[in-house]
Amino acid sequence: MLGATTPAHKRREEFRRLLAGDKIVQFPGAINPINAQIIEQEGFEGVYISGGAFSADQGLPDIGLTTLTEVAEHGRAISRVTNLPTFIDADTGWGEAMNVARTVQEMEDAGIAGMHLEDQVNPKRCGHLDGKEIVSTEEMVKRISAAVRGRRDENFVLCARTDARAGEGLDAAIDRAKAYIDAGADLIFPEAMRDLGEFEKFAKAVDAPILANMTEFGKSELFTTQQLESAGVKLVIYPVTTLRLAMGAIKRGLQVIRKEGTQESLVSTMQTRADLYETIDYSAYNEFDAHVFNFSQEGHQ
C-alpha cells in the first residue's frame, strides 16, 4: 500500500542476483504504474521502462525529444509502485560526460535498479530503424566511464547498448561490446540481431550477460525464451508490447462505440472493477484510512 515495500537498494541487489543466475529472466515494458503492478502480479522478474514507449505515450516519435527530468519522473512513478527491479532506457545519457553522471544519479534517486546507455549519436533513432549513426568507440567508452564514476550504489546496473550491428557488422559490434565491458558496463545490449546465431556468437564472445530486445515489427525474429536461453541470453525485454496491446484494444473499442453507440458489447473484454481494485490494493488504503480516522466526536462539545 502507498507504494513498494521493498527498498530500492534491495531491488538493485535482486537485479544483480538475477543477472548472475542460471536462468533467463523476462522484463516486460510498463507504460505506466498500474502496468508495472500487473507485471508483478503475473510473476515476471522485473519491469522494463522503454524510452520509445514513453515517447509514444507523449505523442512523440522516438528521436530523443524527451528530457532527462521527464524520463526520470516517469521512471520514479513506475518504480514507486512495484517491488520488482526496474530497468530504464537512458538513451545517450542526455549530454556529455558530466551529464551522463548526473543521469545515473537521477535514476538512482528515482528508485531505478539499472539503466542502459547507447552508442548512437544524439539525437538518436529507434534501434530497429535504418539510417542510424553511432559515435566512436572512444566516445562511448567516455559515456560508460562517466556513468561508473557517477554511480553511488555499486549494485545499480549499468548496461551498454551497441547499435553497431547495422552499420559496422557483427564482429565490430562485438569488439565494441568488449571495450564497453572494460570501461565498466555490467550488461551488454546488442541491438537488432538478425538471428539466434548472432545472439549465440555475441554471448560466447563477451564476458558479461547479454540482453535480447524482443520488440515487434523489428529486425529480430520474435524468439521464445527457450530459444534465447539456449543461445546464451540472460535477459529479455519486451519494450513496447504492452503499449501496442493497449492501443490496439483502445482503437478497436472506440470503433465499436462509434459504430454501436454503446460500449455494452465490450464489457466482457475489460478489466473488471474488482480486478482493478485488487491490482491497486484498494482495500489496504481503506484499512489505513480506518486506522487513522478511528475517533468519534460523540460527547465532545
TrEMBL record:
Pfam families: PEP_mutase (PF13714). It catalyses: 3-hydroxybutane-1,2,3-tricarboxylate = pyruvate + succinate; (2S,3R)-3-hydroxybutane-1,2,3-tricarboxylate = pyruvate + succinate. The keyword Aminoacyl-tRNA synthetase does not apply. InterPro entries: ICL/PEPM, Isocitrate_lyase_ph_CS, PrpB, Pyrv/PenolPyrv_kinase-like_dom, Pyrv_kinase-like_dom_sf. It comes from the Bacteria. It is an enzyme of class 4 (lyase). Keywords: Lyase, Magnesium, Metal-binding. This is Methylisocitrate lyase. It comes from Brevibacterium ravenspurgense. The gene is prpB.
